[in-house]
Design goal:
Layout (H helix, E strand, L loop, with lengths): L13 H14 L4 H4 L5 H17 L5 H14 L3 H14 L4 H9 L8 H15 L6 H9 L4 H23 L7
Helix pairs in contact: 1-3, 4-5, 4-7, 4-9, 7-8, 7-9
Amino acid sequence: MPLIKTIKPEDATGELAELYEKITAMRGCVANSAQIFSASPDLIKQQMSFIEYYMMKQKALSMPLLASIRMLISDKNSCSYCVDFNASILINRLGWTPKEVEAMRANPNDAKLEAKEKAMLLFVLKAVRTPHDVSATDVQVLRELGYNDGEILDATNHGARMSAIDIIFDAFKIEKDF
């Protein structure tokens, strides 16, 4: 049980019930990863907007790249909920094998991504883990691979926000529900 009170879908009313309906339409259920935000419907809205942006609006960053970013950021942060959730996306939705996922966890250079995406993955990991070490050359390499500055920012934002989610999930002891 999480350390803060969460509201289950069957107990939600008003605005929260409406938000849960949208989450169910988007994801098929209201997972614990959404319920943890139930104490603050405005945070659920922000999180839904964030997810919707990366799933539906931006087109340059693939689902395998985004799931890899989330999983490896969460791995570094020791957030087992997010590591396992994103590993399950890679395996069950995107067709990776468990060995491919484990190889990437052991060495991000072994990610089952095309070279361009692997470069973005490695950049985001560097930016989130050691932001002071990022150089103009690092950014230029991504530009030369065809990414624009907005796409570089989008990928980095995705990784940075994953760290924040990891903190929330771990601090409040979210339970696995998958």
